[in-house]
Automatic annotation (TrEMBL):
<dbReference type="InterPro" id="IPR016163">
    <property type="entry name" value="Ald_DH_C"/>
</dbReference>
<dbReference type="InterPro" id="IPR044151">
    <property type="entry name" value="ALDH_KGSADH"/>
</dbReference>
<feature type="region of interest" description="Disordered">
    <location>
        <begin position="490"/>
        <end position="509"/>
    </location>
</feature>
<dbReference type="InterPro" id="IPR015590">
    <property type="entry name" value="Aldehyde_DH_dom"/>
</dbReference>
<dbReference type="InterPro" id="IPR050740">
    <property type="entry name" value="Aldehyde_DH_Superfamily"/>
</dbReference>
<dbReference type="GO" id="GO:0016620">
    <property type="term" value="F:oxidoreductase activity, acting on the aldehyde or oxo group of donors, NAD or NADP as acceptor"/>
</dbReference>
<dbReference type="InterPro" id="IPR016161">
    <property type="entry name" value="Ald_DH/histidinol_DH"/>
</dbReference>
<feature type="domain" description="Aldehyde dehydrogenase">
    <location>
        <begin position="10"/>
        <end position="437"/>
    </location>
</feature>
<feature type="compositionally biased region" description="Polar residues">
    <location>
        <begin position="494"/>
        <end position="509"/>
    </location>
</feature>
<dbReference type="Pfam" id="PF00171">
    <property type="entry name" value="Aldedh"/>
</dbReference>
<keyword id="KW-0560">Oxidoreductase</keyword>
<protein>
    <submittedName>
        <fullName>NADP-dependent aldehyde dehydrogenase</fullName>
    </submittedName>
</protein>
<dbReference type="InterPro" id="IPR016162">
    <property type="entry name" value="Ald_DH_N"/>
</dbReference>
Length: 509
């Protein structure tokens, strides 16, 4: 692809959707039966195809989103890296979580049957693409990659904020799947609100993934839960991502913290799910003035869509009008050539006490370049704020490089609370920038996500679309390859781990 003339598909009709869902259901057992190595080769083929068409895809995305070329090129590279990482996960085989307990007539709790457990794909997955990452969380993004890796066909609901980019990317993905020999129906793109909700209600869909607003995600989550056969819904919704700065950290590097915070909350016009929306600083600290000065110098940046811009404007007006809130920097908005508003940052100030008192208004996500500085007088005030925060993706803590003994005890208390609120704790850094690695956890308690045990970034994201099955006393000829005694796929496995400890034996004697 070297041009940007791809036509936008109209909303998917009911008849078209039925055909696509039929195809996905038919493809499910065929795609599941492919060996992990075969599926890995297909994921690599998709990554290769995306790289081959990178120039055209990025050019299309620049027009639709207003995001800069460097950001989009980096994001497309991340998308390809994700696909290859899932391919490596498939080749490794650990994701199948194979556990075998061979029959044992002398087992400590009585005769034990032969038990063989592993993970199987759940079936066709409906993915709702995100607005703010037109590659990494959209058509070929992490949800699609992890579902395909798990062995699940994907029906992708395109985001209306970048329809041409979605259609062009879908063409590349579909072409790569076909060329690599994937079954027909392994991937499909649908468009339109009705098509998305109808697909979510359809019994041929076995799970769904979503990244977006609390209101939109909760509505879809409720649909998934209200089905006659409820299905898993892995939604990433809203997150305020509070950041705490200690006095010790300010003594060491106040200037770096100020510039880092401004850079983080205004990155991408503040349209990152990990944007730090609350900064807790010691009362009377000059860092507030430093941040104010820096925020005033940030140029206007384009919002992704007019709808997002409208929601952002309403949200900051509501927060600025709350009792005890002072406007330090009043953002401006203007309409650029694209017709989508371009905005400058908004910075508000309040106290930790007011933040708790006005939690319903102030401790909500503002999706855009806005942040609240909350000044605290005691560590207890910080703890009360964190306890008042709903589930969030991240909590950031800036400390002295070598905390004193007194500081360590205070920080232990703070981090214990933070760990109950967030899925990732960031120390002496900023949460915007989610490393794509096996150890990453991009999730958190509701409303950050609807499934606190799972991540949407990193290779463990594959676990969302798998479920365990145990075979008991099955004849060898009926066992799936991953749990056959001869282990033809050379899958890592845990064998006869139960009852081997002498402690178990003593406990039962």
């Amino acid at each position: 692809m070297t041009d940007t003339t791809h036509s936008i598909e109209p909303d998917t009709t009911d008849a078209q959707l039925d055909r696509l869902l039929d195809a996905a259901a038919a493809a499910a057992p065929l795609w599941e039966d492919r060996t992990p190595h075969d599926r890995a080769a297909v994921l690599v083929a998709i990554a290769d195809a995306l790289e081959a068409h990178a120039d055209g895809l990025v050019a299309e995305a620049i027009i639709e989103t207003g995001l800069p070329q460097a950001r989009l090129s980096g994001e497309l590279n991340r998308t390809c890296v994700q696909l290859r990482m899932f391919a490596e996960e498939l080749i490794d085989g650990t994701f199948l979580d194979v556990i075998i307990d061979r029959a044992d007539p002398d087992f400590v709790l009585g005769a034990r049957p032969d038990l063989r457990r592993y993970q199987i794909p759940v079936g066709p997955v409906l993915v709702f693409a995100a607005s703010n990452f037109p590659f990494a969380f959209s058509v070929a993004g992490t949800d699609t990659a992890s579902a395909l890796a798990a062995g699940c066909p994907v029906v992708l609901k395109a985001h209306p904020g970048h329809p041409r980019t979605s259609a062009a990317t879908a063409d590349v993905v579909a072409g790569a799947l076909s060329a690599a020999g994937a079954p027909d129906g392994t991937f499909a793109l649908i468009s339109g609100f009705r098509a998305g909700t109808r697909a979510l209600e359809d019994p041929r869909i076995a799970a769904a993934a979503f990244t977006g607003s609390v209101a939109g995600g909760r509505a879809l989550f409720d649909i998934a839960a209200a089905r006659p056969n409820p299905i898993p819904f892995f939604g990433e919704l809203g997150s305020v991502n509070p950041a705490v700065v200690t006095a010790g950290a300010l003594d060491e590097r106040a200037e770096a913290i100020a510039s880092g915070f401004v850079g983080s909350f205004t990155l991408g016009a503040g349209q990152f799910c990990t944007k730090p929306g609350i900064l807790l600083v010691p009362a009377g600290s000059p860092i507030t003035d430093q941040i104010t000065t820096l925020a005033q110098q940030v140029p206007a940046a384009r919002m992704l869509t007019a709808k997002i811009a409208e929601g952002y404007h309403n949200r900051i007006e509501e927060a600025a009008a709350a009792p005890g809130v002072e406007v330090l920097v009043k953002g401006t908005a203007s309409t650029g050539e694209s017709g989508v508003p371009e905005v400058t940052p908004t910075l508000l100030r309040t106290t930790a006490e007011q933040l708790v008192a006005q939690a319903d208004t102030l401790l909500e996500e503002s999706f855009g370049p806005a942040a609240i500085i909350a000044e605290y007088g005691t560590e207890d005030e910080v703890n009360r704020v964190l306890n008042g925060v709903d589930g969030t993706l991240t909590v950031t803590v800036h400390t002295r490089t070598e905390p004193t003994p007194d500081e360590r005890e205070q920080l232990r208390s703070l981090t214990r609370i933070a760990a109950t609120r967030a899925g990732r704790l960031v120390f002496n850094g900023w949460p915007t920038g989610v490393a794509v690695t096996p150890a990453q956890h991009h999730g958190g308690p509701y409303p950050a996500t609807t499934a606190v045990s799972h991540t949407s970034v990193g290779t463990t994201a594959i676990r969302r679309f798998l479920r365990p099955v145990t075979y008991q006393d099955a004849p060898e000829v009926l066992l799936p390859a991953p749990i056959q005694e001869r282990n033809p796929l050379a899958i890592p496995r845990t064998v006869n781990s139960a009852g081997q400890s002498s402690t178990w034996g003593r406990a039962q004697s």
